[in-house]
Design goal:
The protein is of the alpha+beta class. It has 2 domains: about 240 residues, L,D-transpeptidase catalytic domain-like; about 90 residues, 2-Layer Sandwich (Fusion Protein Consisting Of Minor Coat Protein, Glycine Rich Linker, Tola, And A His Tag, Chain: A, Domain 2). It has 9 helices and 16 strands. A hairpin with a 4-residue loop joins β2 and β3. α3 packs across α5 and α6 runs antiparallel to α7. It is globular and about 80 Å long.
């Protein structure tokens, strides 16, 4: 029996065997970066921006160059994000957000040539154009399989790019200085073996209330568009929760299907949300808590390592912010016991959401054993209070 779904992941794997880069100079290994340097604009971009990008990666504790990059764009919010990682099993980390200069058309997928619509859906970079009329450009594989089924069969449109120049008739334009960086990042990822760099284009940020309200106003009388937007939201929710790409499948009607979608928050006022029971957190009876010590507790690796840990934790907890909340400053109390084990975590203020607080404490409890506080050459228990910044950048 024929499966009703066609996996875009399997399609990409099949295509990759047909897209190996040519070998040059006999046995000399092919370098996509060196090939790009044979063109004026990429060489200029690499000379001007590569060192700056390396320093920006270092400042964010990221490994240069990124082996894997993921691009996602939000039409209504006029943003384009670049996410990176170096091991397939690692979660993606946000490197940078660019402002999209201008938007052509309106929300909703592209369905025919000349409609001036920016596509919405799941794509990948299929072209590096070093001689673009818009300085540099990266082509995406519109129309994809879904578009070919649902769009005008004779004139679906083509030639969709992320490019410089800040003008558009259906592409995604950013500035020349930004396309410099994005082109270099993508070229390095391709040079290291990422043949299919995913580009997901969403109508809105589904965690921004204003954007969601606008989308809902457009879809309330359009069931087909509402169904399409819901599938896009499924993919958004999956990535926000796991920081990994979802498996996107396409049925024989051209409709997207997202595997393992995280449960949505209940939206209907007629349905009372089921409140999950609180997690059981580790607590223990602690002896005397002292106010003054000769030496404060020390996190494994020291103070700088603790700050990096808190920054990483803050980025991870973004996925658990309630819808419409963009930032939270959460104050947490805990005890470093005399054996160095952090215990008795409590959220003092900052977020009135049990699911969020439970998840935060669950992660904090796994931070590792500290060097305990010292008073008169003896290890003692010490209460700590720490603020954690969680913000969508």
């Amino acid at each position: 029996m024929k499966s009703p779904f066609i996996s875009s992941l399997l399609l990409s794997i099949a295509l990759s065997s047909m897209a190996q880069p040519p070998q040059r100079g006999g046995s000399t290994a092919y370098s996509f970066i060196n090939y790009q340097r044979s063109f004026a604009h990429p060489e200029e971009a690499l000379d001007r921006k590569e060192d700056t990008l390396q320093k920006q990666f270092e400042a964010k504790n990221l490994q240069w160059p990124a082996r894997y990059i993921y691009i996602r764009s939000f039409k209504y919010d006029s943003q384009l994000e670049v996410w990176v990682k170096n091991d397939i099993k690692d979660p993606f980390q946000l490197f940078k957000t660019y402002k999209v200069c201008v938007l052509a058309g309106t929300l909703g997928p592209k369905r025919m040539e000349g409609d001036y619509q920016v596509p919405e859906g799941f794509y990948y970079i299929n072209e590096f154009n070093p001689k673009s009329n818009y300085y540099l450009s990266l082509g995406i594989n519109y129309p994809n399989l879904s578009d070919k089924i649902l769009s005008d069969s004779l004139r679906p449109g083509s030639g969709i790019y992320i490019h410089g120049g800040c003008v558009t008739v259906g592409c995604i334009p950013i500035t020349d200085q930004q396309i410099d960086e994005l082109y270099i990042l993508a070229a390095h990822a391709k040079d290291m073996g990422q043949d299919f760099i995913p580009v997901h284009i969403f109508p809105v940020r589904f965690n921004v209330e204003k954007s969601v309200n606008y989308l809902e106003s457009l879809t309330k009388d359009d069931p087909a568009l509402k169904k399409f937007a819901d599938r896009m939201e499924d993919a958004f929710d999956y990535f926000e929760r796991y920081k990994q790409l979802p498996v996107v499948m396409i049925n024989d009607k051209g409709e997207y299907h997202i595997n393992e979608v995280p449960p949505h928050k209940v939206k209907s006022e007629e349905i009372k949300p089921v409140k999950r029971p609180p997690m059981k957190h580790y607590t223990r009876e602690v002896g005397v808590l002292v106010n003054s010590v000769h030496q404060w507790p020390v996190y494994p690796g020291g103070g700088d390592a603790f700050m990096k840990y808190l920054d990483k934790l803050g980025r991870e907890m973004v996925a658990y912010l309630p819808r419409g909340v963009r930032k939270a400053y959460v104050q947490v109390e805990f005890v470093i016991d005399a054996d160095g084990v952090p215990v008795n975590f409590k959220v003092l203020k900052g977020m009135d959401d049990d699911d969020f607080n439970d998840e935060l404490i669950n992660r904090l409890e796994k931070m590792g054993t500290w060097k305990p506080a010292i008073l008169n050459d003896k290890a003692v228990a010490k209460k700590m209070i720490q603020t954690i910044n969680v913000e969508i950048l």
